[in-house]
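CO-FOLDING WORKSHEET

Operator: S.A.
Ligand of interest: pyridoxal-5'-phosphate
Run index: 517
Mode: holo prediction, single chain
Checklist:
[x] sequence pasted
[x] SMILES validated
[ ] output reviewed
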Amino acid sequence: MMRAARHRSALSATHRALARGRALFSTQPIEHQSTAASLVNAHHVPDPWSPPELHEKPNAFERSKVSQEHWSDDWSQADLRAAQHEHVVGTWGPTNAIRDVPMFERGEGVYLYDMDGKQYMDWTSQAICTNLGYSVPPAVIERTTEQLERLPHVYGGLGMVEIRCRLARLMAEIMPGDLNGFLFPSGGAEANEAAVRIARRYTGRTKVINLYRSYHGGTASTLSATGDFRRWFGEEGQSGFVKAFNPTPLNFSWGASPEEAATHALAALEEQILMEGPNNVAAIMLESIIGSGGTIVAPPGYMQGVRALCDKYGIVYIADEVMVGFGRTGKLWGFEHYEGVVPDIVTSAKGLSGAYLPIAVVGMRAPIQQFFEDNPLGWGATYQGHPVTMACAYECIKHMIEHDLIGNAARLERVMIECTARLIERHPSAKRGRAVGLFGCIDLCGPDGKLMQPLAGPPHPAVTPFKRALSDEGIYGFVRPPFLHTAPPLVVSEEELRDGFDRVDRALDTLDEKLGF
Ligand SMILES: Cc1ncc(COP(=O)(O)O)c(C=O)c1O
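OUTPUT RECEIVED:
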């Protein structure tokens, strides 16, 4: 009886709504609607929503969980390894790959010492960054500490500090042409990220052309700009990054001579620009000398041709000097190896502070700098223009200049070439080599004459014993087969360099044997 009354009243409410010209729509769940008529043309009514149940966990900071150990200096090696294995996470490789790496305690000159006191020569300046070695120049310590004590931070988006003005002025003096405007991000990838943003905003175009054999950083955009296998880790990628083939490909040749290869590679690049639509291309971003892809200087005329193509089509030329900038190749900048070439934007990092503190630089030419006088750059970061890192970088550059570290790299190129040639003569696994300044690389090959493995591939079984042999010889560095890099700190002496090559020589016996020569 009561149910029938409720049905009647629901029906009459519907009729009243219809009479007022409203849609036939009930907010009541379907099962409560009483007539077939009210179900016709009815909108879906969602089921009542109940929130998922929270499985509560205690989340308050508990002071008692912080052990007293942290106020003690006496952690044994076993304590440290236990903490590492329980908490430290690896990066490009699986965490297991760094499980047993040396635990370093201190450094001096070009040497590192592990907790057992074993000495290693730093054969690649870590990731081609500890250019000033491990004995930090007193002026660097003094000025960096002084900045830390006096004024540790001013956010660069809000205020100005003396050291930012000084460093920017110094950068303008050591860069060619009208490369006059500077940003100071925290690392190489961040610098390249900013450079791409600048080029896009300045040109109003989107696409960026990079080479396949290249690395530009681990952030989303710079990994998309990267050509080598590391890009595959972020293949969902950013749009607008277009790849061109290097003028020095691995598996084919653009021409019989380096000059012919450069001409053909440039013709292909121009064709590609035309197919992409020149008005869509904001930038061509290139490593001045390919670094982790094997120390490759572009063939004669190539970089000049790229510069000319950029001029022809109004494209911004970005020189990625993150690895080779600040003297690594015996010249202050890698692009100085290409006569007459001045980039529109230059990025660098690593050697800028000898990796003592994280800092990078982006330099831009006057017209670009001018454009951003009135237009927002549209890039920023909390730590850009950090006073303490800038103070460190400022003193490092002055130290490099005063102690002629660039000259040291240029003078030792002769030794690099001589010793690399000796390794190639003595070891069948060392097939070819290259060296520019203190930047060298050897191609490791198997008995079939081919590279022992692709850069992207899983490690060849000979890799682990070879790495162990290097470590036993006291060589620490960046071994990423098929490339064996040679890039000690720029403070290395001739005697130390020759000693390093002798150590590598002995370790290569193991590789020859394991590769089956
Ligand atoms: C040429 C080049 N560009 C960019 C980067 C990225 O620099 P970072 O690791 O400081 O972000 C690297 C790092 O090795 C590099 O070699």
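REVIEW:
Residues 108-134+405-514 form a domain with the Aspartate Aminotransferase, domain 1 fold (CATH 3.90.1150.10).
The pocket of pyridoxal-5'-phosphate is lined by residues 127, 187-189, 192, 215-217, 287, 291-292, 320, 322-323, 349 (CB under 6 Å).
[x] output reviewed
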